[in-house]
Amino acid sequence: MTMHSPGPAITVGNIALSFHRAAAAVTRRVLEAHGHQVNGIEAPHEQLFRLQAAGEVDVLVSAWLPSSHDTYLSGYRDRVQVLAPHYHPYCVWAVPPYVPAEAVREVADLTRPEVVDRMTLAIDGINPGAGISRFSARMVTEYGLDRFGYTFTPGTESGFITRVERGIADEEWFVIPLWRPQYLNRLHRLRPIADPRHLLGTVDAASPVIRRAALDLIHPDAVSRLDTLHLGNDGVEELDTLINADGLTPLQAADRYLATHPELLP
């Protein structure tokens, strides 16, 4: 790895969720390898985009486009450069692996009497600004799940994780609004169920977004590296698992991952 001479300080912003912290940590190491001091900032979904629109975030990691975050980016998209995606996320509803596939294969199966009798009707999610939360609120009404007592309530990341861990430990039947990449997929083998109405959005492109005003400050080779950096869903889930299952900080996880993927740094 070639270290470059010191460059201007750059502010990298990420959404306040662990897998976004993981991707931001890798981005930080790329910028540092090109001589930049990096300041970090994180915020909930819509707030982070407002901060970038106000000029307080130089590099936003990452915007999920088009389904989840275009609504937040569209108001200032002419003032930023969207790089190539680092991974391709998508939203799902999932059930634990012990819920039989013959009982629940798709969302409509949640209304079958024998499933309603077993399933926890309260569906918990992460913060309301997340695409998966917006989509899930629609799912409950448009699939008519509310007529059977189902509810969707957004919450916090920590509450969401605790809810999944508790449900798995109790072998509870529950449905969880989820996405890839997320370490719970890998840890618990959660099984996606089909969404025939396609209310959960498309497969998105998770792309770094750089303010055009900051492009002159960032080493061109760093921009090129970030534009070709590919982590993939598996890579982000590996980083997310290092953070949540192995107890590493995001930067420690990035360093361990990059040690085995040296081609990702210059």
Shape-level CATH architecture of the largest domain:
3-Layer(aba) Sandwich
Termini separation: 6 Å
Q: Uncertain spans, ≥5 residues at pLDDT below 50?
A: none
The assigned structural class equals alpha/beta
Q: Describe the main β-sheet briefly.
A: 5 strands, mixed
The fraction of residues in strands falls at: 15-25%
Oligomer: single chain
Helix content: 25-40%
Total number of helical segments? 11
Task: Tell me the CATH superfamily of the largest domain.
Answer: Periplasmic binding protein-like II
Shape: elongated
CATH class of the largest domain: Alpha Beta
The name CATH uses for the topology of the largest domain is D-Maltodextrin-Binding Protein, domain 2
User: What is the number of strand segments?
Assistant: 10
**Integer-rounded radius of gyration:** 20 Å
> How many domain units?
2
Query: What's the pLDDT, averaged over the residues?
Result: 94
> Strand order, biggest sheet?
2-1-3-10-4
Q: Give the SSE string.
A: EHEHEHEEHEHEHEHEEHHHH
Question: Can you characterise this structure?
Answer:
- There is one protein chain.
- The protein is α/β, with parallel strands linked by helices and 266 residues long.
- It folds into 2 domains: 144 residues, D-Maltodextrin-Binding Protein, domain 2; 104 residues, Glycine betaine-binding periplasmic protein, domain 2 (D-Maltodextrin-Binding Protein, domain 2), CATH 3.40.190.
- 39% of the residues lie in helices and 20% in strands.
- The chain has 11 helices and 10 strands.
- Strands 2-1-3-10-4 form a 5-stranded mixed β-sheet.
- Helix 5 links the parallel strand 6 and strand 7.
- Helix 1 runs antiparallel to helix 9 and helix 1 packs across helix 11.
- The protein is elongated, with a radius of gyration of 20 Å.
- The mean pLDDT is 94.
